[in-house]
Amino acid sequence: xxxxxxxxxxxxxxxxxxxxxxxxxxxxxxxxxxxxxxxxxxxxxxxxxxxxxxxxxxxxxxxxxxxxxxxxxxxxxxxxxxxxxxxxxxxxxxxxxxxxxxxxxxxxxxxxxxxxxxxxxxxxxxxxxxxxxxxxxxxxxxxxxxxxxxxxxxxxxxxxxxxxxxxxxxxxxxxxxxxxxxxxxxxxxxxxxxxxxxxxxxxxxxxxxxxxxxxxxxxxxxxxxxxxxxxxxxxxxxxxxxxxxxxxxxxxxxxxxxxxxxxxxxxxxxxxxxxxxxxxxxxxxxxxxxxxxxxxxxxxxxxxxxxxxxxxxxxxxxxxxxxxxxxxxxxxxxxxxxxxxxxxxxxxxxxxxxxxxxxxxxxxxxxxxxxxxxxxxxxxxxxxxxxxxxxxxxxxxxxxxxxxxxxxxxxxxxxxxxxxxxxxxxxxxxxxxxxxxxxxxxxxxxxxxxxxxxxxxxxxxxxxxxxxxxxxxxxxxxxxxxxxxxxxxxxxxxxxxxxxxxxxxxxxxxxxxxxxxxxxxxxxxxxxxxxxxxxxxxxxxxxxxxxxxxxxxxxxxxxxxxxxxxxxxxxxxxxxxxxxxxxxxxxxxxxxxxxxxxxxxxxxxxxxxxxxxxxxxxxxxxxxxxxxxxxxxxxxxxxxxxxxxxxxxxxxxxxxxxxxxxxxxxxxxxxxxxxxxxxxxxxxxxxxxxxxxxxxxxxxxxxxxxxxxxxxxxxxxxxxxxxxxxxxxxxxxxxxxxxxxxxxxxxxxxxxxxxxxxxxxxxxxxxxxxxxxxxxxxx
Length: 779
Fold this sequence. Notes:
By secondary structure, the chain is mainly α. The protein has helices at about 100-125, 125-150, 160-175, 180-190, 200-210, 215-225, 235-250, 255-265, 270-285, 285-300, 305-315, 320-330, 335, 340-365, 375-385, 390-405, 410-420, 425-445, 445-460, 465-475, 480-495, 500-510, 515-525, 530-545, 550-560, 565-580, 580-595, 600-610, 615-630, 635-645, 650-665, 670-680, 685-710, 735, 740-750, 770-775, and strands at about 45, 55.
């Protein structure tokens, strides 16, 4: 190697140590200490004994290694080639002034958060809150677009975000029932050509028109949406077809609806559509298509597997959710119990079975199979069709057939059909026993009814109807306390069991627990507010407690449900009569007579009211009607004659008295009237007076003989005899019986004072009011 080519010629090293200080190089940089700065590869070279140069050891210098723990050059004391000993890096300085893009990104995040909050509120059912968030999101999104336009970031405008905000706003308007605003927002999206998929939103517009009952416009929107959906989206297309079919059903165009439903059943059949198709066939009255539609409906496969079907059978057999939860609690582990998919499949299968059962109930009475015109042929067809794949539904249809036998009064066949379930599954056996108990109870066979009620209760202790049947058997036997306990247990199992609540109120009435009875009926009124029987019981309870005004209020509510019930109108008339409101009492009695013109209570009250008002012509009409209803009753004809006498038509009155006497010669009261009126007219009355005397003598002899028998007989009743009064005249027993109107007054006032029927004129006799007094109701 030449000396000129030696890179390290400026240094002179030998083996003994470092050589003398090198000659100064004016071009070499100096260190702060005055020493020349080293360069890469300029370290001193070692020499061998022969004088040859050895490559210097410079490979360790670059890695930071030093043979000395410290050096004057400021190297670290420890070996740290990665500089890990310097500690954590200082925190980054916060940017004080954001750029336009950063602000746009922040605005966009806020818009996303508002849209998600609106959707979450809509899911929770808070329509107003969801609408407010959707409006805020729309404002922020417009502000974002203006910000980007102002800063030259037009190319960064997110049209998908704009679409999402507008769609969420339209959906929020729809949820808040603001249909006009929702339709306007959807129209803006549909007309915007930047959104190629916006045509599907016409389905939402069609749904809004459907809710507004604009079915023709809804069908138009559905078909426009259908044109923009490709054939690959079959599932969505079939859903739109179902909406079109539903709109045609609302319009009553069942033939057009059938076409839409048949399209779905030919491509992607489902239970809901199949059931709607059967309903359309039923509306059209096509029994053959009903039969084919039912066969297609039950041929749709169920989604649940065998284990899930077993769980569903147990769920259907349980009358309460608590029992099903108790049964499945020990069979499934915690992980399986939280399986949402399994529960969804069970829910869908239960709905499918309900569709099949409801369809079978609907078409069974209408089907005629192989020329069999009997009403039970359709039931047999449905049972046989369901038995192969849906045995539980088939068994329920057999019970429906038994109930049909009951409705047509063929109780023998119904009992035979229900007894066939004694060898069936447990829950089906319990269902049959419940119906058997009810049948025997109606027939009056309490022993058999009690037997099957116990059987149903033992098989299913959560069967509310079985508990009600058991309570009814006990109530008929007079064991009201135990019956009440069964009714309460039935209500505990099924809180809205109207039969149990109503029977509980009746039992409380029997036990004279008025407050509890009223509480039961008022609770039942909340469940079935339009039930006339419940309203009547509440009104009757208030009436029994003397709360006339409250009772009248409930009776007024009742006549809005049954405006033509004569019994209710009569009760209202009696209550108004007790309140001395004669005008209202007359109105209700007259309405009752208009709806039921053969009620003697109403006829007698109206007749007496017209007599009191001195409107004798109208009173005659009512008393003649009473005489037609009871032709053998003398008092009605005497009332008619009395009205003629009060009118001053004595000749007509005399003719009627003579006619009554000819038909009833032993009637002493008629003879008294004949004697009196003959005297007034100046006509001979000796023969009438003789007959009357003989009748009076005979009556006195009868009284004396009865008095002797009474003194000879042992004294059993030591109460003193009632004093004689004009109201206790000797007359036939049927004449002494008061009608229902006086009895109703007697409940509130045991000793009412009989009012006068009319002001007595000077020219009238002392017997003027005798025949009318027996008919006057208490006022």
